Amino acid sequence: MFHTSLKPPIIETIPLLRKSKPKVWIEAYGCSASMADSEMISGLLKQAGYEIASKKSESALSLIVTCSVKDTTEHRMVSRIRTMTKSGKPLIVAGCLPKADRAKVESVTSSASLLGPNCIDKAPDAVRLALSGGRLVALRDSPLDKINIPRVRLNSVVSIVEIASGCLSQCTFCQTKVAKGWLRSYRIGDIVRQIKSDIKSGCKEVWLSSTDNGCYGRDIDTNLVELLKACCSIEGSFKIRLGMMNPMYLPSILDRMVSLFYESDKLFKFLHIPVQSGSDRVLKKMKRGHTTKIFMDAVEAFRGKIPEMTISTDVIVGFPSETEDDFKETIDLVERSQPDIVNISRYAARPGTEAYEWKGMRVNSQVSKERSEYLHALTRRIAKKRNSLWQDWQGEIVIDEIGKVRQGRNYAYKPVVISSSSTNAADNHQILLGDKVHIKVYDFSNFSLKAKIIL
After folding, report:
1. pLDDT at 426
2. Alpha carbon distance 117, 139 (integer Å)
């Protein structure tokens, strides 16, 4: 607990003498960095004396950490904000949406307090003002680094560590840059201290997250490889998942990255490198800073050393001026690279971006839909083929999710679903978050591996 009471313990146990603290309901959407923001907001509020509600009905105030990366996501955010406003409770809208499009939020609610993604330290002030009928708008970036801040974890065995905020790219389609601005890397020593503390408190997975991990350190005279080396040198039983990095930064560090991933058992054999298109012409219009060759060189280098390496990528279908030939090049690239995971998005113009103004070049929505469906079918086949390579694999996983199913990750970050019949009922209930279990894969789908616990 982050709040330290000055009252003697005996007084704290007498309900009539303990002052009731307002409860705050928190929802979070979007990337792992948004999840980390919500954890830190919860920690800061708890430190300030507020309680985090476990049910919406018991809260005095609601706070939503938003995402604005896609128009479909924005529509969901607007719907949630509208619903939360109708409850009549004070509302705080945090995250990317209020920073990227303040007018959009205020068209739904003019009374909600607003917090930008780099203003989470203002959360206690926003709550205090909102509960007293006031309103705080904090959208200008705070000088506070989002590291070593009190937090309440969404998952007790997963440490989400933000290593930087913002990026160096100028992608013509991306609204995240509007929200998070230019790169601000956090010091390696501070990041290491955060991880050590989280491992000590029981975390088994560390997710290194930021807008773009690839450009980490370029503003403070270091780089991602140096950070990973420092993280891998930390003692303890845990694994590190490296989050998204843009391919444009790989050429200068590729050999060292491949060697480090091959040599260190601390790193999940997982890489998320969004290619976005298989057409170099389209990549240039996107201002991605990389070519298809740079992407393929990275895939071949990692898979050449680690054949089972899980490769995740992103593709935008129907980017302005994308032709049938451009799309065919994307299909060809996906077939050659055989990514395990492809996050497919149909292009949607985002306010504040350069491509938003390219109205005359937009691709017909029906054409985009057909291309998306074709690509989805292809990537599902590839995913199932890649997962088939793990048939009959035996090894150790750490349970990192318990809900309708018990799930863990193997060393290549493949999701492994534990069969409910693999243990007797009594033993199955004793499997806890963070437990290591030895399993054998007996089946697979395009989404996951299915396994039984073995002795």
Report:
1. 41
2. 8
In CATH, what is the architecture of 12-138? 3-Layer(aba) Sandwich (3.40)
d(CA 317, CA 211): 21
**pLDDT reported for residue 420:** 77
Contacts with 218 (C-beta within 8 Å, 6 or more apart), sequence order: 168, 183, 185
Query: Kindly report the CA angle at 439 between 434 and 445, in degrees rounded to 5?
Result: 100
| pLDDT score for 389 | 97
Nearest residue to 444 (alpha-carbon basis) of 312, 340, 314, 313: 340
Specify the CATH number of the domain 394-453.
Answer: 2.40.50.140
CB 52 within 8 Å of CB 26? yes
Say what the pLDDT of residue 427 is: 54
So what's the pLDDT on residue 64? 97
142, 121 Cβ separation under 8 angstroms:
yes
Please report, as a single letter, which amino acid is at residue 216.
Answer: Y
Counting Cα atoms < 13 Å in the Cβ hemisphere of 450 gives 10
C-alpha 191/C-alpha 227 separation (Å) is 9
Q: Which pLDDT does position 5 carry in this prediction?
A: 33
Residue-range domain boundaries for the chain: 12-138, 155-267, 269-389, 394-453
Q: Do domains 155-267 and 269-389 have the same CATH topology?
A: yes
Q: Which of 271, 244, 243, 246 is nearest to 257 (CA)?
A: 271
Q: What is the CATH number of domain 155-267?
A: 3.30.750.210
The model scores a pTM over 0.85: yes
CB 97 within 8 A of CB 64: no
Q: What is the pLDDT of residue 153?
A: 95
What tens digit of pLDDT does each residue of 125-140 get?
999 999 999 999 999 9
Provide the residue type at 343 as one letter. N
Q: Phi and psi dihedrals of 408, rounded to 5?
A: -135, -175
Q: Which residues pair with 401 in a beta bridge?
A: 407
Backbone angles phi, psi at 206, to 5 degrees: -120, 120
Whole-number CA gyration radius for the chain: 23
Note the pLDDT tens digit of each residue in 72-105: 899 999 999 999 999 999 999 999 999 999 999 9
Note the pLDDT of residue 16: 42
pLDDT at residue 9 in the model: 37
Q: Where are the alpha helices (DSSP H) in 8-160?
A: 9-12, 32-47, 71-86, 96-100, 102-108, 123-131
Largest Cα span, the chain: 74
Residues with pLDDT less than 50, the chain: 1-18, 425-426
Report in angstroms the alpha-carbon separations of 423 from 429, 431, 453: 9, 10, 7
Would you identify the CATH topology of the domain 269-389? Transcription Regulator spoIIAA (3.30.750)
